[in-house]
Amino acid sequence: MFGFVFGTACLAGLFYTLRRGRWHHRRGGPGRWSWRGRMRWLFERLDTSPGQEKVLVQAADELTEAFEKMRDELSATRAAIARSLRGESFDAAALRELDAKHDELIDNLRKTLRAALSKTHEALDPKQRRELADLLEHGWGHGYRHYGYGGGCGGWRSARSC
Known about the structure:
Layout: H1 2-20, H2 35-46, H3 50-72, H4 74-86, H5 92-123, H6 126-138
């Protein structure tokens, strides 16, 4: 009887572990600094409402799709470069086709970025926009003071940290 209970508990633990994704350390997987983890941290940092979070996640998803389209083109890019080098003479026509594809993808990425930033700007209030702009300009760790450094009580530079 003990073996049956122990086996059931092990099976339940395995399902829990697999569902949470603890065995796989892939980009964008679960964890504090995954894509979703960073978004959660950003939402807490900006003190966003659920409606604002929905807009920001939608904008981030649109940008991710545009980047994925560019990433999908990487193997075709390598193949075209290899074709241009493989022949008896250099094949510039293959690279011109590649340039046209890249120009189209980059133009799409620029349009998506402008639309995402516009949505983000409309969704956030001035204080949140200022904070997000500082984070983008200086990086994720900007404004963080450790104990003993910078004379603060630690945490971010906002009044909430003291």
